[in-house]
Amino acid sequence: MVTAYQNSAEGYAELAAARRQSRSLYWAVGLFSVFSNMLMLTGPLYMLQVYDRVLGSRSVETLVALSILVAFLYGIMGLLDFARGRVMARVGARLQATLDRRVFEAMLRRSAVSNDSVAQTGLQDLEAVQRLIASPVLLVIFDLPWTPFFLVGITLFHPYLGMLAVGGGTLLVLITVLNQIYSRKPVLQANISSHRAGLMAEEIRTEAETIQSMGMRSAAFTRWKKTRDNSLAETVVASDVGGSFSSLTKTLRMFLQSAMLGLGAYLVLQGMATGGVMIASSILLSRALAPIELLVGQWPQVQRAHKGWQHLSDLLAKAPEETRKTALPKPKARLEVSGLTVVPPGDTRAKLKTVSFKVEPGQALGVIGPSGSGKTTLARALTGFWRPAGGVVRLDGAALDQYAPDVLGQHIGYLPQRVQLFDGTIAENIARLAPEPDSAKVVEAAKKAAAHDLIVSLPDGYDTRITAGGGRLSGGQMQRVALARALYDDPVLLILDEPNSNLDNEGSLALNNAIKGMKAAGKSVLIMAHRPSAIQECDLLLVLDDGHRSAFGPKDQVLREMVANHQQLLKSSGMGGMR
Ligand SMILES: Nc1ncnc2c1ncn2[C@@H]1O[C@H](COP(=O)(O)OP(=O)(O)OP(=O)(O)O)[C@@H](O)[C@H]1O
Asked: Which residues line ligand 1 (CB under 6 A)?
């Protein structure tokens, strides 16, 4: 409990520091607000003068002069209000720009260790905060402190008027508090459900092929509709609650304004106030209470941003900023894994248990084992994506966490089991999304992966635009482009997870040549595989079984032992049958 609090506090502190960057702008808005609120007195003072001076003296000149002055003051007030809005829009944009990268990276890092919701919604939370800052609701903070002054002003006109205004104001504040209490849960629930429905729609859209080709459209719609209906029902409840408080506030404020006029008229009849006071106090009251009405009306936005702020602080605390690491020289391809234990994020049980092995420069290691034995888990731990729960992975003697993550990524070439490319050109994809791909390196990597010919045969060659799912590329072509991406910029360690699952003979040959090339250059290669053709170039073999290392050593020796064990097993089961 204590740790959680401390963690969140650290996140809050980081957010507060980002917010403080705009401190001078907040002061500017505060100053504008001082003048803008002072100018709010223009209307009431004009009414006082018109009723008590102009109507008394019947002077058209005075009325014209006053009206011109008032038009001028309203103009200034409008300008100040416009300026406040513009400044706050920029404050919001600056906060978002300051935190974008940090939140983006925190989301990525957090997703690698856990599947908690704050990691999913980080950027949306930041946007909710930015929207609130840029909206008129936040200006209420600068206007609310003036409400007591306006109420005092009314009291100065007449204590009875003051009592009515203060009583009405208190009632409105009470409604605001009740609004907060009653609408918090429904608004939160509505936000969560709408997020869930959005996610599901996105999931269905990306899996459109499966859904369409297996007649799952209607079932997928029904599933999505259920979530959508839930979200709609919750949105209606939230809007009912918020709407009723909003209507109550509006009605009450309008009634108070009329009540003010009524009480003012009574005081006029009693000779205790002038007509000007009657009108002016009614206008002043509406100015005093306007911020509260706005606040109640826009409360869901405030709540969403507040939740967003909490989520962000939680996310930033859970993924603290990485300390700068001392740059290490480019490592030699010496991989040493000792006692490696890995628990996938969100899981409680280890899926890789105390696995140890060594790979020297120029060697290729094949990792085999049945489905679910932990091959991909090992690959993810070796890239540094999943942190070890125990043991250590060393590259050229240094534990992986001694390398800055992006630098480590440059030393490693990774071909995941499920190839994912990104929207962009083939060259950008091979160059790992570098903004300005180095053409020579891109072509070199493509040639190593034997993908060059297939790429130049496309209409726009390396500049062919592809989508995240590959677009016009076939499964095998995607895998070859992904292999080129893995080989880009001369990595020292190449990790290939089921690399030939989509490859034809030519592709497999190209892959084996690439592995040979890596070995000849003194790099090391790890191949997670099912098919024997994939381990053809391997010198070593690691056999995994239910997360354990069941065998490790030179390939031929391990294979011989496996065959011997297999024959032993067959023999013993045969003997068992004779008995
Ligand atoms: N993200 C995850 N969260 C929780 N458990 C996971 C996750 N990914 C994999 N696992 C579990 O870890 C175990 C090992 O999975 P892994 O993907 O490493 O197997 P594999 O040997 O690569 O299998 P295959 O040959 O089918 O690809 C499996 O029991 C799997 O259910």
From this structure: 344, 346-347, 351, 369, 371-377, 417
